[in-house]
Design a protein that fits this description.
The chain is of the alpha/beta class. The protein has two domains: 5-62 and 322-427, Alpha-Beta Complex (Aspartate Aminotransferase, domain 1), CATH 3.90.1150.10; 72-318, Type I PLP-dependent aspartate aminotransferase-like (Major domain) (Aspartate Aminotransferase, domain 2), CATH 3.40.640. 38% of the residues lie in helices and 14% in strands. It is built from 15 helices and 14 strands. Helix 3 (93-105) runs parallel beside helix 11 (305-318), helix 12 (323-345) packs parallel to helix 15 and helix 14 (378-390) crosses helix 15 (411-427). The longest helix has 23 residues, at 323-345. It binds pyridoxal-5'-phosphate. Pyridoxal-5'-phosphate binds at residues 117-119, 122, 145-147, 207, 212, 240, 242-243, 267, 277.
C-alpha cells in the first residue's frame, strides 16, 4: 500500500509559506480532494513522488513536456547553455534560431516576440491588436483560458471553473468592461456580439481547440466562420495556441484546420519545459511592437538562452518524420481503450480526443461549450482520479483539463493505464 507521508509533511510546511501551499491553484488538488503529491523527479513518461511512489504521467507539466521528462537531448543542451551563462539581457543567436523555426512552422507567424509565459503572450497580443485597429473591445469565449491577466479573467475556464469562481476578486469591473463573451461553437451568438458592437471590437481571441474546460472540439466550419466574420468586421483573429502549438501539428491548430489567424500566441512546448511564451503574426501588425512601433512590451528574461535552447531541441525532435502520426495513434488507442474500460465498468463517461490530447468527461455526451462541459459530474471525476492515483497513474487533478500523451509514452504505459482505469471506473461509483 502506497504511503504519502513525506508528501503530506512537505505540503503542510508549504501551506505555512505559500497561499494554499502552491504556486498555481490547480496543483492543490482542491477539485479532486485529498492532499497533493509532491513530485521528486521525472524521467520519460514516469514521475516519482517524495515517498518514492511511481506514476505514469498524463499532466506533462500541463502540456510542455511532449518529449517526456528529462529527455537526454534537452538535458544535454541545458547543461551546455548553463555553462555559457544563463541570461544576458541582450540578443543571443539561439533566439534567432528559435524565431526562425517558429516562423517556418506556424503559418500565420511572419514576426515573433518571445516572452516568459503564455499569460504575457496573450496580454501583449491584445495590446497590439488594440493599437493596430484603434479599437478597445475584445471578444472571448466562455470557458477558454488565456492566462491570468485582468481583462481575460472573465469566464476563463480551467482553475476558475474548478474553483467555481465566477470571476477573480481584485479585477476592477472597468478592466473587464471591454471584454465581451460568447459561448464556444455558437455562431449566432458571435454574429450578435459583432452586430451589437459594430466597429468597436479590436480582436476575437480563441483557443482553436479549447483544452481548459476539458477538451472541447470545434464544430466543422466554426474556425473558418470566425476567420470570415473577423475579416468582415475589421477585427483581428487571435489564436491562443499555447497548448495546441506544436502539440496538434508543428503548425498548430491553424495548420491542422487550415484556418490562418492574424496573430498567434504560443508557450508551453516551445520552451521545452522552461518558462516561455511568444506572440507573433502578420508583419504589418507585429511592426506595431516597440522598438519598431509604438506598442511597449519588454522583459528582463525574455528570449532567455536556457529556454530558447530547450525549445530548439524540442522542436527539432518534433520535426522528425511520423512524430504526429505516432502521437495521434497513441491518443486514439488510449481513448478507445478508456471507452471500453468505462463501458465494462458501467461508468457513464464521454471521451473527447484529438491527437495526443484527451479528456474523460463524466457526462452523457461530448460538451460543445462551457455550459455543457460544466454539467460533468466533478465528484465522480474526483473519485476516479484518486483511484487512478492509487494505481500509479497521474491524471490532471480536475475534470476541466486535458490529459497529454508524450513521445516517451510506450504502448505498455497506455495498456497499464487502461487496465488501471477499469478498476478505477468501477470504484468511482
Ligand atoms: C497555459 C495557458 C496559458 C497561460 O500560459 P502560462 O504560461 O501559464 O501563463 C494561456 N493560454 C492557454 C490556452 C493555456 O493553456
Amino acid at each position: 500500500m502506497a504511503t504519502h507521508e513525506r508528501s503530506q509533511q512537505i505540503h503542510t510546511r508549504a501551506q505555512q509559506l505559500m497561499p494554499g501551499g502552491v504556486n498555481s491553484p490547480v496543483r492543490a488538488f482542491k477539485a479532486v480532494g485529498g492532499d497533493p503529491v509532491v513530485i521528486a523527479y521525472g524521467k520519460g513518461a514516469r514521475l516519482w513522488d517524495a515517498d518514492g511512489n511511481e506514476y505514469i504521467d498524463y499532466v506533462a507539466s500541463w502540456g510542455p513536456l511532449i518529449l517526456g521528462h528529462a529527455h537526454p537531448a534537452v538535458v544535454s543542451v541545458l547543461q551546455k547553455a548553463a555553462e555559457r551563462g544563463t541570461s544576458f539581457g541582450a540578443t543571443t543567436e539561439v533566439e534567432v534560431e528559435l524565431a526562425r523555426m517558429v516562423c517556418d512552422c506556424v503559418p500565420s507567424i511572419e514576426r515573433v516576440r518571445f516572452v516568459n509565459s503564455g499569460t504575457e503572450a496573450t496580454m501583449s497580443a491584445l495590446r497590439v491588436a488594440r493599437a493596430f485597429t484603434g479599437r478597445d473591445k475584445i471578444l472571448k469565449f466562455e470557458g477558454c483560458y488565456h492566462g491570468h491577466s485582468d481583462a481575460l479573467l472573465a469566464k476563463a475556464g480551467s482553475g476558475i471553473a474548478t474553483l467555481g469562481l465566477p470571476d477573480s476578486a481584485g479585477v476592477p469591473a472597468a478592466f473587464t468592461n471591454e471584454t465581451l463573451l460568447a459561448p464556444f461553437n455558437d455562431r449566432a451568438a458571435v454574429e450578435e456580439v459583432f452586430e451589437k458592437h459594430a466597429g468597436t471590437i479590436a480582436a476575437l481571441i480563441v483557443e482553436p481547440v479549447p483544452a481548459n474546460m476539458g477538451l472541447v472540439l470545434p464544430q466543422p466550419g466554426f474556425l473558418q466562420f470566425l476567420r470570415d466574420i473577423t475579416a468582415r468586421e475589421g477585427a483581428l483573429l487571435i489564436f491562443d495556441e499555447v497548448i495546441t502549438g506544436f502539440r496538434l501539428a508543428a503548425g498548430g491548430a491553424q495548420f491542422y484546420y487550415g484556418v490562418i489567424p492574424d496573430l498567434t500566441c504560443l508557450g508551453k512546448i516551445i520552451g521545452g519545459g522552461l518558462p516561455v511564451g511568444a506572440y507573433g503574426g502578420r508583419e504589418d501588425v507585429m511592426s506595431m511592437v516597440a522598438p519598431s512601433g509604438p506598442v511597449y512590451q519588454a522583459g528582463t528574461l525574455s528570449g532567455n538562452p536556457m529556454a530558447m535552447a530547450a525549445g530548439i531541441v524540442t522542436l527539432r525532435m518534433l520535426a522528425n518524420d511520423g512524430v504526429y502520426r505516432g502521437l495521434d495513434a497513441m491518443g486514439a488507442w488510449l481513448a478507445g481503450a478508456l471507452r471500453d474500460a468505462a463501458r465494462a465498468a458501467g461508468a457513464p463517461v464521454t471521451i473527447t480526443q484529438l491527437g495526443s490530447m484527451l479528456t474523460v468527461f463524466f457526462a452523457g455526451e461530448a460538451p460543445a461549450d462551457y455550459a455543457s462541459a460544466k454539467r460533468a459530474d466533478t465528484e465522480r471525476y474526483g473519485r476516479w482520479f484518486r483511484a487512478m492515483l492509487g494505481a500509479g497513474v497521474y491524471l490532471p487533478p480536475a475534470q476541466f483539463e486535458a490529459m497529454f500523451i508524450s513521445l516517451a509514452h510506450m504502448q505498455e504505459d497506455l495498456e497499464r493505464t487502461a487496465e488501471a482505469a477499469k478498476a478505477a471506473f468501477a470504484a468511482s461509483r
